[in-house]
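Sequence decides. Our protein:
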Amino acid sequence: DVLNPLAREYKSIGTVKKEVAELQEDLAEAHKQVQYTLYPRFSFLLLSIFKFIELQPKQVHISEARVSAALGKLAFMEVLMNESVVQKQNIPESD
């Protein structure tokens, strides 16, 4: 590895591609869930991220910063959705 920087580069690209593939699976599942939930304000953000990630695996030079930004947006969206669920659970229903 030390003598061959291309080997390191190949490994990092392979690692990023694997992470992107895993993220694609997560996004596909989240995309299905968002379509059937009451979170329309998040659907546009999720669809944008989904389309971005969907196009990236065919490109060799994937920007780790862009992937990181997409993951950050997903984490933020998850926090907001969890807070919304907690708030709904804390509101007593009156029949």
Remarks:
- The chain has one domain: 5-90.
- The chain has a mean pLDDT of 68.
